[in-house]
Amino acid sequence: MACMKPEPSASDVMRRRTRRFVVLALAVAALAFLAIAAGGINDNLVYYWTPTDLRAAGNKAYGATIRLGGMVSAGSIRHHRGTTGVEFDVKDANAIVHVKSSGVPPQMFRDNIGVVVEGTMIRSGTFECHRLMVSHNNEYKAPQAGQHPTNGKELEKLMRTTEGL
Amino acid sequence: MITTAALGRLLILGALLVSTAGAFLGFASGAKRSEEGLRWSRRLAYAFGALMLLATLVMEHALLRHDFSVSYVAHVGSRDVPVWVTIVSLWSSLEGSILFWGLVLGLYIAAATRFTSRGNEEAMPYAIGTWLACGSFFSFLIAGPANPFLTISPAPLDGPGPNPLLQNHVLMVAHPPLLYLGYVGMTIPFGFGVAALLRGKIGPTLVRAMRNSLLLSWIFLSIAIMLGGWWAYEVLGWGGYWAWDPVENASLLPWLTATAALHSAMVMQRRGVLKGWTLTLVLSSFLLTVLGTFMTRSGVFNSVHSFTQSAIGPTILVFLAAVLIGSVTLLALRIDTLESEGRIDAPVSREGTFLLNNLLLVLFTFTVLVGTVFPLVVEAVNGKQMSVGRPYFDSMVVPMGVALLFLLGIGPALPWGRTSHNEIRRALLPPLIGGIALLILGVIFGARNPWTIVTLFAGGYALQVTLVQLAKLRHSRRSVGAYVIHLGVAIAVVAIAISSTMRTQREVVLQQGQSTTIGVYTVTFTGTEERSEPHRTSSIARIAVTKDGRTVTTLEPRMNQYEMMREPIGTPDVHSTIGGDLYISIASLEANRAGLLLIVTPLVSWIWIAVLLMAAGGFIALVPRTVIPSVARDLGGRRAMHVPRTPPAQVPRAARDDMGVA
User: d(Cα B406, Cα B109) in Å, to the nearest integer?
Assistant: First the structure.
C-alpha cells in the first residue's frame, strides 16, 4: 500500500501533528468540562425528602438543600409578631420536623394542609425554610365536605414542581 | 348522519394512511430516482397537510358549537368561558395539543414541498419521505394514544373549561402556537439533513433550503421562549422569568444547537468545510425537540408548562429512540461521503471565532442537558427523587454566556481568512472603547456583581462592533439581518445580567392604609375589591404607587377564583417602565390585611424588546431577494450577495454548483 502513495510531505506531517494536538487538547478540555459539571451537579442537588427520610439521613441532613414534604401539624402554627415570619411543625406518619420560615405564608396555609418547604436543616434541629409551597389541588372538582385536600399523590406532585425554583 | 367525532377520526385515519404511504414512496423514489414517484410523494405531502387542516377545523367547530359528545370538548370545553378561550382550548390540553402539532407539521410539510423543491429534485424525495415518516408517527399518536375525537355518550351538558392557569393570561394565545411553530419546524431541516446524508451530497440550493427552514423555526422558537418567560413573569407571581425548569430547558436545548448550526452552515457555505458537523447539529436539533416533547408530554416532570397525563410517554420514547438510532447510524455510515473542500487555516479569523462559538454552544447544550436529565437518570436507577438546583445552571452557564457575548463582538470584527497582526489590532482595539464605556455606565448605576461587570464590558464591545457593521450599509440583506439579530442578543444578555443581579425584593404584611417603600417607590395598601366575571371571581388588593410624592399608578394584584377549582390562583400586577419594573404579587389577602411580595427589577422589558429585535433580524435575513430588490440595492446588497469578500481564489466553492462529491 505504501508504494501506491507518495511520501508524505513535511507539511502533511505538520498537519497530522496539529490534528493530533487538537484532538488531544479537545479530549482534555472535554474531560475537564465533565469534571466541573459533575462537581457542579453534586454541590447543587436538591433532595426530595419526607420527615422520615430526613430523620433517617442523620448527620447527612445538615447543610444539604432539601425539599421537605409533609403535613402541617395541627395547632403548631405560630406567627411572629411584627414580622412576616412563621413557625410550624411538618409531620408524616413517623416523624416530625420543626420549621422556621421568614416569608409571608401563602393564602391557603393552615393546619393539616400538605406543604413542601425548601431549605436546610441547621444544627439546632430547626429546618430553615426559604420557600414555602402549599399543596394546590388543581383538579376541577368542587371540594367535598370533610375531605382533606392532602393526599400522597398531591404532595408528590408538589414535590416535583419546579415552579419558581 | 356521521357524528363530528367520527368525522374527525376518519380524517386522522386518512392522514395516517397518506403519510405512511408517502414516507415509503418518498424513500423508494429517492433510491430509484423516479420522477413519477417524486410527483406522487409531493401530492401525498399536500394531501397530508389538507387532511390535518380539515381535522383541526372539525375540532374547532366542535369546540365552538360546544359539542360535548366529542371527548376533547367534554374534557376542556365550557359554556362559561369567553370565545377566545374556547378557540385556544385546542392547545390547552394534551390531546388537542397533539392535534394542533399535527396541523403545524402538515402545513410545514406542504409549504416546504411547495417552496423548496426547485433545484433540489434529487434530495426532495428523501426529504419528503422523512417529513411524512414524522407525520405518520404523529397521526398515529392522534389516532391512538392521544385521540381527541372519541365519542362520549350520552354527551354531558357542560364541561370544566381549560386549565385556569392557561385562562389567566392572554399570552397563552400566542406562546404555544409559536412554540409549536419553532419545535415542529425543526422537522424540515432534519428532512433536508437526512436527504443530504443519504445522497452523500449537499449542494448550495440544498444548503440554502436547510438554512432558511432552520432560521425560520429558530425565529419562532426565540419568540416562543421569550413569551414563555414573559408569561411566567406576568402570571406565576414569583417575579422571575426563567427558573431552569426542565420544560423551559427543553425549549432552550434545540435553540442552542440550531444557533450553532446556523453559524457552522455559514462556514460550510464559505469554506466548504464542517459539512458533517453542520448536519450533526441539524439532526441534534430535531432530536432535542423530540426529547423536549417527551419531557413535556409524558408527565415525567411536573411543571406549569407541562401536561401531566402519561399515556403517550412510552410511545414518544420509542419514537425518540428510533430517531436517535436512525440518526447516529446514518451519520456513522454516511458522514464520510461529504468531503471537505477546504480547510480553516487561520485560528484568528472570522471562521476561527465561528468554531469557538460552536464549541461553546455545544458545551452550553451539554451543561443544560446533563442538569435536566440527571434527576431522571437517578430516579430510574435507584428511585431516589431529587433535582439539580438553580446554582448549578447559573454557575456553569454564566461564564459560557459571557464568552459567547464576547465572541459576538470579536467575530464580526475580524475578517475571513488569514490576516496580518496589524489588521487584527486595528479590528480588535477600537471596540474596547464601547466595552469600557458601558462598564463605567453600569458601575455608576450601581452594578457591583463581578459577572455583571464583565458582561457589561463584553456587551459594550459587541454593541460597538455590531453598530459599526450596521452603519456601513454595504452588506447583503442577509448580513444586515444577522447583525440586527446580534444587536438583539447583546441587548438581551446585558438586560438579563442586570435584571437578575440588581433586583430588590421584599415580603411585607400591610394593614389597610399602611405604606412601605421599595426602591424609589412608596406603595400603600388602600383596600380590597371583589369583582366577578362569568368564569371567575377576583379578590383584588388595590395598591397605590407613588414616587417622590407623586402618584404613579394603582396596581391591582389579585387572587382569581375559577369555577370548578377549589383554590384561588394569585396573579401579580406589574408597573413597567423603560428603566425597570415594579412587581407586586399577593401571598395572602384578607379584608384589611395583605401579605405582599414586592420586587423592583431593572431593565426587564429590554429582554422582551431584544428578542423581538432578534426575530425581526431573522425575518430580514429570510425574505427572498426578489421581494425587496430596491432595499437590497440600497444596501449595496447585489454585489456583496454574490461575491465573497475574500479573494475568489480562496473560495471557489461558494460559486461552484455542487459542494459535495458528485
Answer: 38
Closest chain B residue to the Cα of A154, Cα to Cα: B302
Q: Which three cell numbers stand for residue B370?
A: 446533563
Cβ contacts (< 8 Å) between B388 and chain A: which residues? Answer: 41, 44-46
d(CA B235, CA B585): 9
Question: Which residues of chain A are within 8 Å of residue B559 when distances are taken between CB atoms?
Answer: 107
Q: How confident is the model at residue B154 (pLDDT cuts 50, 70, 90)?
A: confident
In chain A, residues with a C-beta closer than 8 Å to the C-beta of B373 are none
DSSP codes, B539-569: EEEEEEEEETTEEEEEE--EEEEETT-SS-E
Beta-carbon contacts of B220 under 8 Å, excluding residues fewer than 6 positions away, are B178, B179, B181, B182, B185
Residue B344 sits at the chain A interface (C-beta within 8 Å): no
Q: What is the DSSP letter of A59?
A: G
What CA–CA distance (Å, rounded) separates B321 from B290?
10
Stretch 123-162 of chain A: residues touching chain B, C-beta under 8 Å: 136-143, 149, 157-162
* This prediction's pTM: 0.88
Residue pairs spanning A and B at CB distance below 8 A: 125
Q: Do A104 and B238 touch (CB under 8 A)?
A: no
How far is A1 from chain B, CA to nearest CA, in Å? 21
Q: What angle do CA B19, B24, B25 make, to 5 degrees?
A: 95
> CB neighbours of B43 closer than 8 A, spacing ≥ 6?
none
Q: Taking CA atoms, what residue in A is nearest to B509?
A: A84
Question: Is residue A84 predicted with pLDDT exceeding 80?
Answer: no
* C-beta atoms of B388 and A45 within 8 A: yes
Q: Are B390 and A48 inside 8 Å of each other by CB?
A: no
Mean pLDDT to the nearest integer, B108-135: 94
Q: Residues B313-356: pLDDT tens digits?
A: 888 989 999 999 999 999 999 988 887 787 777 888 898 999 99
Parallel, antiparallel or unpaired: strands A65-72 and B550-555:
unpaired
- Quick one: which of B480, B486, B505, B517 has its CA closest to B620? B480
| C-alpha angle B371-B377-B380 in degrees, rounded to nearest 5 | 150
Q: What is the pLDDT of residue B11?
A: 97
How would residue B571 be classed by pLDDT, with cut points 50, 70 and 90?
confident
In the structure grid, which three cell numbers stand for residue B357, read together? Answer: 462559538
B66 vs B152: CA distance, rounded Å:
13
- The length of chain A is 165
**Within a 13 Å sphere around the CA of B26, how many CA atoms are in the beta-carbon half?**
32
Task: Report whether pLDDT(A142) > 90.
Answer: no
Mutate: best of A140, A158, A159, partner B, most B CBs <10 A? A140
B residues 592..611 contacting A (CB < 8 A): 595-597
Instruction: Tell me the backbone φ, ψ of residue A47, rounded to 5 degrees.
Output: -90, 140
